[in-house]
Amino acid sequence: MLRIITDYGGLLLVAMGRTLLLALLGLFFACIIGLIFGIMSVVHNRPCNIIAQVFVDAIRGVPMIVLAFFVYFGVPYLFNTIIGGFSVTLTALQAGTICLALNCGAYMSEIIRAGIQSVDIGQMEAARSLGLTYAMAMRRIILPQAIRTMIPSIINQFIITLKDTSILSVIGFPELVNTAKNVQANTFMSFQTWAIVGVMYLIVITILSRSAKRMERRLNVDR
Amino acid sequence: MSTDNTKQENKAGTGEVRIRVRDLKKTFGDLEVLKSISMEVHEGEVVVVIGPSGSGKSTFLRCLNRLENADSGVVEIDGTDINARGVNLNKVRENIGMVFQHFNLFNNLNVLDNMTLAPVQLSKCSKPEAADRAGKLLERVGLADKAGSYPHQLSGGQKQRVAIARALCMQPKIMLFDEPTSALDPEMVGEVLQVMKDLAADGMTMVVVTHEMGFAREVADRVVFMDGGYIVEEGTPEEVLLHPSEPRTIDFLNKVL
């Protein structure tokens, strides 16, 4: 156990850093995707609703490991060989970010849709009756209230996304699980290696959910 | 009392037309809520709409600022047909204040921000001007000390008075009230009605949907009785409330009075 920490501790920490980087990048774009599709699913516009619904259903219906292979191998193959004339290459980090953003974005969009719909319709009516536009009402009145109810679900989704980065070890991104596989292969100490990796995830996620709880409490003071 | 009524009738008759509704129809699915409504509201007039629940009176009110889209018919606000294509609905709504049964104060904003958000966002005035105006309005509704409070810290009556003040902060020409006292505890009804009475006395053009017959009798220039999607009877409070001629009006008034 100690030997793994002394010999490979630095390596594993760096890998954890990459895991966090991948998760943060994925979450950042997932928030944007989620907001766009979440709003598209609540506006009074049939085509927008349908597009958002198809996106969510498509992503939810495909395992992330399939999505990862599809984005990393399938998409470049489509452009370079099937269509031809392109030379598209994606790094593992790029492909991983796209996968996480799409996957997490679809769930975020559902969280955001539910959050917006949980705000009393009277809030929107009051805002519109004053002459505010739909966009102003959304930004100033509806979203700030929706975000409060969304926070526990969003944090939950963040945690799931952080753990889902491990799936991206299959496309060769040297995040924590991928690195740990190499450590195990070098040392044959599988019990120790995976115990350490498990504890590392546990610590990061516990810190994340604790600080999230604190933030949630602070946001609720004027309730 | 009789001189008072004469004065009101004169006022109601001479002002220019603020709201004109012609043959308004509205259905929800198979349910015909408004069958054919036509009426006019003049400058400075207070029209009180009464009727049993489900008679379409709230829907009618909500058609006046197009919170509900009418199926057919014309709603003109100061000569603008608000159901016409390309009409700037937000501009129209700036001039029509609305007060809701459930107050609908913005829960994420304090009282002052509730009031100043729309005027500032819509560039009606600067932030200090809006705050100044809001302060005066809060004083007028007796809540000068509540500017920093959040909606959940207020009683129902206080919320509704803030809601009225919020609508007034846009300096509207017309005020719509959708059962403003129906969700209040009985002891808070009076304070809200008093604010509305003051507003009427100041000459505001008002359309009020309510079950407060006392308010109708005292403040209305005209009472409109709706039932089954039609205006069954309208006239002065005396005519409609004291000497109704339609059997349905008589029946309704017997139940509520």
List the defining traits of the structure above:
heterodimer, A: mainly alpha, MetI-like fold, flat, B: 257 residues, six-stranded mixed beta sheet, four-stranded antiparallel beta sheet, globular, disordered N terminus
What is the strand and helix layout of this fold?
The complex is a heterodimer of chains A (223) and B (257).
Chain A: H1 2-42, H2 46-60, H3 64-84, H4 92-118, H5 121-129, H6 134-164, H7 176-187, H8 190-219
Chain B: H1 2-14, E1 17-28, E2 31-42, E3 46-50, H2 57-63, E4 72-77, E5 80-81, H3 89-94, E6 96-99, H4 111-121, H5 127-140, H6 156-168, E7 174-178, H7 186-201, E8 205-209, H8 213-219, E9 222-227, E10 230-235, H9 237-242, H10 247-256
Parallel strand pairs in B: 3-8, 3-9, 6-7, 7-8
Antiparallel strand pairs in B: 1-2, 1-4, 4-5, 9-10
Give your account of this protein's structure:
The complex is a heterodimer of chains A (223) and B (257). Chain A has helices at 2-42, 46-60, 64-84, 92-118, 121-129, 134-164, 176-187, 190-219. Chain A is an all-alpha fold and 223 residues long. Chain A has one domain (2-222): MetI-like (MetI-like fold, Orthogonal Bundle), CATH 1.10.3720.10. Chain A is flat. Chain B is α/β, with parallel strands linked by helices. Chain B has helices at residues 2-14, 57-63, 89-94, 111-121, 127-140, 156-168, 186-201, 213-219, 237-242, 247-256; strands at 17-28, 31-42, 46-50, 72-77, 80-81, 96-99, 174-178, 205-209, 222-227, 230-235. The longest helix of chain B has 16 residues, at 186-201. At the A-B interface, helix 5 and helix 6 of A face helix 3, strand 6, helix 4 and helix 6 of B.
